[in-house]
Amino acid sequence: MSRFQARCQTAWWRPSVAAVRWVASRVACSTSSQARAAGVLVVFVRFALRPSGADLLPDNELHRSFFEAGDTFHEGSAGTEVDLPVADGDVVVLERRASAFAGTDLDLVLRARDVGAIAGAGVATSAMVAATCYDAADRGYRVTVLRDGCADGDPAVHDFFVDTVFPGRGFEVVPCADWPRVR
């Protein structure tokens, strides 16, 4: 295992303000600090679409719904900024698709730091967290999902992913308090 791990925070999809605040407070108050103290690279991933719509795929209703939700998901609006404490050594990645790897420099940053494993937290468990974790595994990263660092619009869907789907894909699922583990 490399001496670095990365934690990807993808709290951009807002099924409810309460869910995002709960995940953000959990991640900001303890997990990011624990990671930094253990020498782990902290990566924040934020989602935004160009206000012109230039990055919308034709016939992609999901992205079009985000775009048409007003300025909430438009690059430059307050809702697309990282709303957690970002330290000097942290990395912020701008994502325009479900996976934090798709069309970003995340893989480049992680490989430059010799990172071999990621731990994912964010909203929504069944969408952005899942897409990023699948993509990470396809790229050869070991994947951990922080169970109580994720949320979904439907708590039953969240539980299904962390109890069944992620372990079935070989991903480790742990509570925030148990991560990072010193190996």
TrEMBL record:
<dbReference type="InterPro" id="IPR036380">
    <property type="entry name" value="Isochorismatase-like_sf"/>
</dbReference>
<protein>
    <submittedName>
        <fullName>Cysteine hydrolase</fullName>
    </submittedName>
</protein>
<keyword id="KW-0378">Hydrolase</keyword>
<dbReference type="InterPro" id="IPR000868">
    <property type="entry name" value="Isochorismatase-like_dom"/>
</dbReference>
<dbReference type="Pfam" id="PF00857">
    <property type="entry name" value="Isochorismatase"/>
</dbReference>
<feature type="domain" description="Isochorismatase-like">
    <location>
        <begin position="33"/>
        <end position="166"/>
    </location>
</feature>
<dbReference type="InterPro" id="IPR050272">
    <property type="entry name" value="Isochorismatase-like_hydrls"/>
</dbReference>
<dbReference type="GO" id="GO:0016787">
    <property type="term" value="F:hydrolase activity"/>
</dbReference>
